[in-house]
Amino acid sequence: MEYRFEQGNFADARVVRTRVFMEEQGFANEFDDVDEDPRTVHVTMYDADGALVGCARTFPDPDHTDEPGRWVFGRLAVLPEARHGGRGAALLAESERLARAAGAVEMHLHAQCRVTSFYELVGYEQYGPVELDEHVEHIWMRKTL
């Protein structure tokens, strides 16, 4: 499949995240200050016809500034009509590539527990306790890049 990625198109990322996280999954607090941080890399994905299909974001970990190579990945979302074609894995790989190019050596993410197997397939490992993010169980995961 052919994909095209863009960086910095927060308007399109907002469309995907609103539809997936707020409308489909019921999250109320989807957007935060990280979205406006100039270090945050917003990645959007488009199919061969130019249709928006998904998004993700990654950024240097603001809670671990003493570890400059530690980055956080998140907000991976693929529109329902575009799922199950490897697009989520492609978005993750592109986000990891961009983070590595910016100096990341380790990626952390706060995964919904129901999708941890997806991340484990590409080398992430779980750590820490299960936590609620709004109404959904999440757990931290990490990977050396």
Automatic annotation (TrEMBL):
It comes from the Bacteria. InterPro entries: Acyl_CoA_acyltransferase, GNAT_dom. Pfam families: Acetyltransf_10 (PF13673). GO terms for molecular function: acyltransferase activity, transferring groups other than amino-acyl groups. Keywords: Transferase. Residues 1-145 form the N-acetyltransferase domain. This is GNAT family N-acetyltransferase.
